[in-house]
Every structure is written in C-alpha cells, then in structure tokens.
Design the sequence.
C-alpha cells in the first residue's frame, strides 16, 4: 500500500461546479498537508497549506484535514476553466531534517469545461 | 520578486555530454531543492540544500552533481546521463525557518531534459 493514495482521474466538470479532490494516507505521523496545482509543462504551485487537523479557506479553495480518517480534501467552488490542471496532495511528518520530506500523491487531472 | 528562475527551459544532450542546469531565487530563501518529475508522476526529491550546505541526498546516482555557490543559486551538473534520465527537472525554494515556512513553497518552471 502506498503511503499516499490519490485517484489520478481524469475528472471532468462543467464550469461553476463544486469540485472535490481527495487523498488518503496510511502514516498517522503526517502533520503537514499541502495541495499543489500544476499546469501542463509548468512547475507545481503551492495552493493550500494546513498543519494538523481542521479546515482552511482561501477564496474559492477550502482544504480539509481529517486525521482520524487519514483523509484530506480540497474543494474548489465556482470552478473555472482556468482551474483545469493537475492537483497534487503532499504531506510530511515534520518540518526539519528528513521528517520534512514531502510524500506526494499521484495527482488528479481536472478539466473544467466552459 | 517571488520567482524561482530555471535555465535552460529545454535541453537535449547526448550520453557523453556534460551540461549544467541553473536555478536562481532572490526571495532570501535559505533552503533550495532539486526534484525530478516524469510524465504523469509526482515530483521525486533529489537533493536539499539548507544554508548552502547539502542536507539531503536521496541516493541519487553520481552522474548528477549538485552545487550551491551562494544562497541565491543552485546548479545541477550532469554527466554521462542515460536516456531514462529524461524528465522535467524542477528547482524549488523555501524560507527554511519555522513551521509554516519550511515547505517547498515556490517551484521554478523546470528544465525539460532529453537524453539521446
């Protein structure tokens, strides 16, 4: 079993839809949870960063962490064609030394259709 | 300036060539990273420099040689590569202090490397 599981999709939604992207993980020691967006032929861009459990909101994006279920989510409200990209979750045990190494999901390919 | 700049954007090299990838940031970040990314895969960590010292080497073959000349620059020297080394090579940087800042917050656009 991989440490981080993420459905690669592809996921196709109409413009304006609410998008839900998810990752599950097996290592209960993970404390730092990130979502990155990667457009085709570009480097990843950090979207959301969460420490431990709870929700975090930034504009149309909401990140949720449920440590009891080992499950994290990214919600995109009012999705736009410009949101079409690959979304990667990443997590780490700590923030120093080898504990800061990011463990990545495979990424979910999202297409938002006008 | 909130950018990590990588050069060149594309590189084609033969298996006997020596080439270098360059990465530059002027955000005052003290941690810099090299990643390798294959198509439809997540980035794989190769090296981490913290305060210009190599702190993590993920058992990368010696044909890849990193160098950090100063806090703004990171190089990756390539020699005797194999076709399977063809990939997108990404540089990233982070502030390197504290809890919320110790994440690879900024990635460059990458160098798309093809080994022939």
Sequence:
């Amino acid at each position: 079993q991989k440490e981080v599981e993420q459905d690669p999709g592809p996921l196709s939604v109409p413009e304006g839809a609410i998008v839900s992207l998810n990752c599950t993980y097996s290592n209960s020691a993970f404390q730092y949870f990130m979502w990155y967006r990667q457009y085709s032929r570009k480097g990843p861009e950090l979207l959301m960063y969460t420490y431990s459990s709870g929700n975090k909101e930034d504009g149309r994006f909401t990140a949720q962490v449920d440590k009891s279920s080992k499950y994290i989510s990214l919600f995109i409200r009012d999705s736009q064609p410009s949101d079409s990209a690959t979304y990667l979750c990443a997590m780490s045990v700590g923030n120093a030394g080898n504990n800061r190494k990011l463990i990545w999901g495979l990424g979910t390919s999202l297409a938002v259709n006008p | 300036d909130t950018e990590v700049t990588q050069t060149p954007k594309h590189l084609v090299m033969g298996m006997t060539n020596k080439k270098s990838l360059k990465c530059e940031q002027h955000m005052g970040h003290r941690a810099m990273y090299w990643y390798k990314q294959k198509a439809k895969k997540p980035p794989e960590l190769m090296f981490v420099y913290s305060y210009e010292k190599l702190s993590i080497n993920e058992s990368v073959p010696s044909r890849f040689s990193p160098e950090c000349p100063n806090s703004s620059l990171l190089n990756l020297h390539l020699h005797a590569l194999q076709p399977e080394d063809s990939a997108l090579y990404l540089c990233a940087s982070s502030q390197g202090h504290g809890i919320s800042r110790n994440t690879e917050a900024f990635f460059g656009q990458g160098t798309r490397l093809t080994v022939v």
In short: Chain A is about 0% helix and 55% strand.
